[in-house]
Amino acid sequence: MAGLKTWFDARSLREKRLILVMGALAILTLVWGGIIRPVTDGLSSARERYAGAVVRLGNTQARVAAVQALQQNRPAALSGPLEANVRTRAEQAGFPLSAATPVDNGRVQIAINSARPAALLSWIADLEGAGILVDTLNVTDNGDKTVAVQMTLKARGQ
Question: What is one Pfam family matched by this protein (predicted)?
Answer without folding.
Answer: T2SSM
